[in-house]
Design brief:
alpha+beta; Diaminopimelate Epimerase, Chain A, domain 1; 2 domains
Length: 303
């Protein structure tokens, strides 16, 4: 299947490119996580895309291109640089294309910088996208834990030392920090400029503190997500790739005896942008897991 793109005009007049604003992982405008979406991006190069992402100013803007390998190609840019994969921007762009009738099938493949990923569209009280992520990878954090916690406004006793602090990735690297108590999250105040000197193994990683206490009784994990200073942003309101890797973390470090897990992540309450990500992880063998996230999105307007 090949998607045919239409040319759009109006709104943000930059390189004759229309940018749409969608909020992901929510059905309510101005909740969840905002993304800029450009659906006809084949005429843009990386420099153009970065210029647009800076102008938009969201944590990520996604660009939809044609592909010789898959049904379409997605490229993701923060205001500071390109990233390999972004869960919420994927949800935003695919919801945009599906709701506008530009995707007909309920099963497609997308090309990303981490490879080809399958997508399924579910129709349960609206459009839901189920996205497979990359195979999870973990690397130990060997830096100073006290300095790390200070960089997000916490004391060392608030870290849950029963579990390790590790870098995790299903496409984008983040540092997973287990926290004991939900009350710690409202106290967090990131000093993003300190992150690179603390993250000695991966200075460009983001930080993702999380815990197993939640505001919503139907959620299983709560989290916040603090951006790398190289990204040009401070905090992500609700994060798809990091939610997926939290599921892999749970099966690797918290409950390794389990073969699968399915749960909901809540995030964004501290930013007044409440959102939800559904996570599903299945072990294939000791080194491979299938990681899926699912969620919806909503159209907000033209930029």
């Amino acid at each position: 299947m090949r998607i045919e793109f239409v040319t759009c005009r109006g709104g943000l007049e930059l390189l004759n490119t229309q940018v749409y604003h969608y909020d992901a992982f929510t059905k309510t405008p101005n909740m969840g996580n905002p993304a800029g979406v450009v659906i006809n991006a084949d005429h843009l190069d990386n420099e153009n895309m970065l210029e647009i992402a800076k102008k938009v100013g969201f944590n990520e803007t996604v660009f939809v291109l044609g592909s010789d390998k898959a049904d379409l190609k997605l490229k993701f840019f923060t205001p500071g640089h390109e990233i390999n994969l972004c869960g919420h921007a994927t949800m935003a762009s695919l919801y945009c294309l599906k709701s506008r009738g530009l995707i007909k099938s309920d099963f497609i493949t997308i090309e990303t910088n981490i490879g080809l990923l399958p997508i399924e569209f579910l129709h349960n009280n609206g459009i839901t996208m189920k996205m497979k992520q990359g195979n999870p990878q973990f690397v130990s954090f060997e830096g100073d834990t006290e300095k790390l916690l200070h960089s997000i406004g916490l004391a060392s006793y608030e870290y849950d030392a029963n579990y390790p602090i590790v870098y995790g990735s299903t496409g984008t690297w983040t540092l997973l920090i287990p926290i004991k108590d939900l009350n710690s999250f409202s106290k967090m105040k990131p000093i993003n400029s300190l992150f690179p000197d603390i993250l000695i193994e991966n200075p460009k990683a983001s930080l993702h503190p999380f815990c197993l206490q939640t505001y919503d009784k139907d959620a299983f994990m709560h989290a916040r997500h603090f951006s790398s200073p190289y990204s040009g942003t401070i905090e992500d309101s609700i994060t798809g790739t990091a939610s997926g890797v939290m599921g892999a973390y749970y099966l690797t470090y918290m409950k390794p005896e389990l073969q699968s897990i399915s749960f909901t992540v809540e995030q964004g309450q501290e930013m007044n942008r409440d959102g939800r990500v559904n996570v599903e992880v299945n072990k294939i063998n000791d080194s491979i897991m299938d990681v899926y996230i699912s969620g919806t999105a909503v159209y907000v307007g033209e930029l």
